[in-house]
Amino acid sequence: MSTAPAATATPMLHFLCGKIGAGKSTLAQALAARPGTILLSEDNWLAALYPGEIVDLADYARCASRLRNAMGSHVAALAGAGLSVVLDFPANTRRSREWLRQVAQEAGCAHQLHYLDLPDEVCKARLRARNASGTHPYTTTDEQYDAITAYFVEPDDDEGFNLVRHEQR
């Protein structure tokens, strides 16, 4: 008996944009609970492939680039097989979103870019709670949050994504 998700008639790619602690992974899990949908988490893949090797932003950039090079055609193949895919990879810069747009073009299916737009103080509070819980493969300090967030670029309509905005309620 197979435990693989059943293919859907119209596969969808879901991309996620938002600062650390905005709730991207939580939303990704909810989206992946839909029938015929699979979740690919950058954090989980990086932790499995590079245990103990990612200690700073340069390490992250190097390892994440390798992972993205391997994942693009894999995602397209999954969509080609009729599966919807949630890519829990941060779409937080124009460059990262360009990669995701290329993945969507290669897959040839519909996509949505989910933008979680929350204030820094909310994200930092959630990040501290996540760090304390020990449930995430990485911990991030407030200083690291600030350094990483300095690279964040809000998505723009001219980038060509089907944007779904999620704001704090």
From TrEMBL:
SUPFAM superfamilies: P-loop containing nucleoside triphosphate hydrolases
InterPro entries assigned: P-loop_NTPase (IPR027417)
Domain of life the protein comes from: Bacteria
GO molecular function: ATP binding
Keywords: ATP-binding, Nucleotide-binding
Protein name: ATP-binding protein
The species this protein was found in: Achromobacter pestifer
